Amino acid sequence: MKQKTAYMGMFLALALILSYVEALIPFQFGIPGVKLGLANLVTVMMLYCTGAKEAFLLSVLRIVLAGFLFGNPFGIIYGLSGGILSFLVMYLLWRGDRLHVVSVSVAGGLSHNLGQLLAASAVVENRNLFYYLPVLLAAGFVTGFLIGLLAQEMIVRVKRLK
Predict the structure, then answer these.
(1) Which of 22, 24, 58, 153 is least surrounded by CB atoms within 10 angstroms?
(2) CB 136, CB 117: distance < 8 Å
């Protein structure tokens, strides 16, 4: 239990640092919601290194804290909608233990963008936002793939430390 608590604190701090770094990077495609998703690296690592409960708690805490520290209330709403859907999809795929970390991360990236788009269309009451879906899915695939590659390497190294 103490080891999971230590991992939780360390990974939450790392996730918040990555959220802050990502907020500093001028990464604009002209479409709201397209981000690198650096902090999602930590969620994927937690899922594989400590388990689903800890990873889910970390994801929610990170989104809320980063929203208050570096964002705004709408950012928290969009972040939670994308983050929770993303986590549920990744959990279901991880639990099956048949897919590679990269595949799970790509599915998480795709579902995160879908969740945020669903929330945005509900908030602004405009279904025309779904015209952005192809670009958001392409961005989710690319960033999910890159985060998955990084996560795979980090998971191997963290598990060696245990």
Answers:
(1) 24
(2) yes
Measured CA to CA, the distance from residue 65 to residue 62 in angstroms comes to: 5
**Per-residue pLDDT reduced to its tens digit, 91-132:** 999 997 789 999 999 999 999 999 998 998 888 888 888 888
The DSSP symbol for 112 reads H
Q: What single DSSP character describes residue 36?
A: -
Question: What is the C-alpha separation between 79 and 23, in angstroms, rounded?
Answer: 13
User: Residue 69 in contact with residue 23, Cβ under 8 Å?
Assistant: no
SS (H, E, C) 122-152: HHHCCHHHHHHHHHHHHHHHHHHHHHHHHHH
Query: Do residues 152 and 102 lie in contact, with contact meaning Cβ atoms separated by under 8 Å?
Result: yes
pTM above 0.85, yes or no: yes
Query: Which runs of consecutive H residues, i.e. helices, occur in 97-126?
Result: 101-124
Give the span between the Cα atoms of 63 and 19, in whole angstroms: 9
Residue with tokens 């990555």: 18
Q: Any idea what DSSP says for residue 90?
A: H
